[in-house]
């Protein structure tokens, strides 16, 4: 059994493809911005907030999600979002992460002075500033370190209400006679239009996502939005199989053209299949998994987050990540929410390697698969970047693993 040290995992080049901006603030920054903007927090020290809100373990999903009430509250101005994005980029750079796809729901970050598109531009400025600082450093210029890149993924929401944000409040008030699913569809289609418009502005809008509660809020309600971005050559990912069964993943790839799946945790759970037309549930799951593997539909695996929010998964050994690897799925290891889950990408790789007996080749393949499965464009640049990643990984592996 190969033992992968924390220092080795810190040094290797990594990618994070499932990274929520509003779940990944520095705690110190959250406190500072809340005090500046007169936003009420349960406490104003890092120690107390870790005890009351941002915990190592949560009782349930609602408790986990409570932290977002405070993070989104301080993300209602361009200046704040730009700072948060800038710091997030540097937090990743400092632990060897060389490519990130930062996602958030712009329609949750809207005020009288900031549109959803403005919030995306602000995040871009922060990420770009950090990228330019690092890529112009002597280490990168000399070729000692490989450069840092990023993309942005815009998230539509499966469910929202009037208290979710000012944007959703106005939308619901305007569409008083529309059904709930119709309002959700209108909101996601408008976000799709925003995504395409920003892409035309040359912002790196690399993907479109659907997040939020799965049960009762199917992805098919957002078909128009996904079709719109699909026709504009924007890649697609969907939170699916996180808290619902294989059918949610099936719908993501058949109705939403998903190139990747967020979480996919219950991919193999036949007990969660509700469709009575599915007679052989085991065969259904096997064919679905084989399709994902064969078509290289990536799965964004978030171990700590799943352990914190899914009572059925008590340890990494209960997690389907091992079975996913056995079936040849393309996996990427991700943080989900660095603050809410109190984790880093190095922590996630350490958690994986301590609980799953990986060979050196298997670990290398998972790391490289993250870069290969990214939405980095154009392809020629991505291909050249992946080669640099592999060369750097091999160099560090030779140094640390004799």
Can you describe this structure?
Strand 6 (260-263), helix 13 (281-294) and strand 7 (298-301) form a beta-alpha-beta unit. The radius of gyration is 20 Å and the shape is globular. The chain starts with 5 loop residues before the first helix and ends with a helix. It is built from 18 helices and eight strands. It has helices spanning 6-11, 27-36, 46-52, 61-65, 67-73, 78-93, 116-135, 138-141, 166-174, 180-200, 223-231, 246-255, 281-294, 303-309, 321-326, 345-355, 360-372, 379-400; strands spanning 14-20, 97-104, 149-157, 205-211, 235-240, 260-263, 298-301, 331-333. The model has no long low-confidence stretch (mean pLDDT 96). The chain has one domain: Alpha-Beta Barrel (TIM Barrel), CATH 3.20.20.140. An eight-stranded parallel β-sheet has the order 1-2-3-4-5-6-7-8. With 402 residues, the protein is of the alpha/beta class.
Summarize the structure.
This protein has 402 residues and is α/β, with parallel strands linked by helices.
Shape category: globular
CATH architecture: Alpha-Beta Barrel
Radius of gyration (CA) equals: 20 Å
The residue ranges in which pLDDT falls below 50 over 5 or more consecutive positions are none
User: Biggest sheet, open or closed, and with what strands and sense?
Assistant: 8 strands, parallel
What would CATH call the homologous superfamily? Answer: Metal-dependent hydrolases
List how many beta strands DSSP finds: 8
Q: Span between N and C termini?
A: 13 Å
Which class do the helix and strand fractions yield?
Answer: alpha/beta
What is the total domain count?
1
Beta-strand residue percentage: 5-15%
Which percent range fits the helix content?
40-55%
What is the assembly state of the chains in this entry? single chain
CATH topology (fold) name:
TIM Barrel
Number of helical stretches of at least 4 residues: 18
CATH class: Alpha Beta
State mean pLDDT (0 to 100 scale). Answer: 96
Biggest sheet, spatial arrangement of strands: 1-2-3-4-5-6-7-8
């Amino acid at each position: 059994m190969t033992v992968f040290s924390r220092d080795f995992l810190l040094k290797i080049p990594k990618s994070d493809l499932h990274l929520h901006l509003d779940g990944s603030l520095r705690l110190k920054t959250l406190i500072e911005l809340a005090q500046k903007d007169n936003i009420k927090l349960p406490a104003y020290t890092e120690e107390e907030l870790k005890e009351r809100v941002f915990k190592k373990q949560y009782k349930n999903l609602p408790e986990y999600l409570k932290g977002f009430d405070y993070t989104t509250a301080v993300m209602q101005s361009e200046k704040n979002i730009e700072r948060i994005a800038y710091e997030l980029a540097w937090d990743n750079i400092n632990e060897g992460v060389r490519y990130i796809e930062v996602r958030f729901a712009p329609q949750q970050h809207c005020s009288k002075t900031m549109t959803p598109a403005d919030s995306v531009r602000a995040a871009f400025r922060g990420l770009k500033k950090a990228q330019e600082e690092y890529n112009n450093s002597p280490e990168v210029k000399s070729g000692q370190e490989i450069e840092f890149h990023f993309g942005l993924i815009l998230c539509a929401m499966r469910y929202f209400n009037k208290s979710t944000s000012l944007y959703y409040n106005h939308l619901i008030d305007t569409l008083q006679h529309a059904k709930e699913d119709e309002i959700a569809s209108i909101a996601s289609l408008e976000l799709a239009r925003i995504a395409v418009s920003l892409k035309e502005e040359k912002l790196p809008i690399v993907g479109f996502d659907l997040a939020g509660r799965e049960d009762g809020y199917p992805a098919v309600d957002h078909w128009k939005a996904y079709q719109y971005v699909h026709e504009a050559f924007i890649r697609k990912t969907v939170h699916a199989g996180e808290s619902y069964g294989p059918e949610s993943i099936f719908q993501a790839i058949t109705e939403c053209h998903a190139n990747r799946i967020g979480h996919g945790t219950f991919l193999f759970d036949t007990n969660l299949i509700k469709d009575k037309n599915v007679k052989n549930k085991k065969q259904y799951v096997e064919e679905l998994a084989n399709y994902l593997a064969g078509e290289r539909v990536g799965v964004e695996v978030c171990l700590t987050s799943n352990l914190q929010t899914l009572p059925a998964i008590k340890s990494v050994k209960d997690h389907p990540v091992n079975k996913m690897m056995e079936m040849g799925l393309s996996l990427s290891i991700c943080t989900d929410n660095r603050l809410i889950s109190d984790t880093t990408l190095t922590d996630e790789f350490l958690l994986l390697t301590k609980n799953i007996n990986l060979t050196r080749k298997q670990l290398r393949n998972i790391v490289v698969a993250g870069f290969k499965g990214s939405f980095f464009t154009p392809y020629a640049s991505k291909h050249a970047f992946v080669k640099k990643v592999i060369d750097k990984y091999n160099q560090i592996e030779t140094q640390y693993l004799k």
